[in-house]
Amino acid sequence: MPQIGWLEILAVVIVAILVLGPKEFPIALKKIGSYIGKIKNTFSSFQREVTSATKDLDVEEELSKEEQKDKTDGK
């Protein structure tokens, strides 16, 4: 994965200010920030759901193993 240095970031900011203008640039940054926040929240929620589902599956597997163990011990 390529590394992005300060010079490249500065070049992107300068081009964005020239294209958007100094008045629209802060508004664009706010919108981009809010979109990134929404995306992070969505991924975090998805990760919590997957973790919860896998924990539920692990519990079910443990219960079935215990039931099979009890059946074999009872014989």
Helix content bin: over 70%
* Major pleated sheet: none
Write down the overall geometry: rod-shaped
Radius of gyration: 26 Å
| Mean pLDDT score | 86
Count of distinct strands? 0
End-to-end separation in angstroms reads 59 Å
| Uncertain ranges | none
Give the percentage of residues in beta strands: under 5%
What's the short story on this structure?
This protein has helices spanning 6-20, 24-74.
Key terms for this structure?
75 residues; mainly alpha; 88% helix; 0% strand
Report on the architecture of this protein.
It is a single chain. The relative contact order is 0.05. By secondary structure, the chain is mainly alpha-helical. The protein has helices at 6-20, 24-74. 88% of the residues lie in helices and 0% in strands.
Q: How do the strands and helices of this protein lay out in sequence?
A:
Blueprint: H1 6-20, H2 24-74
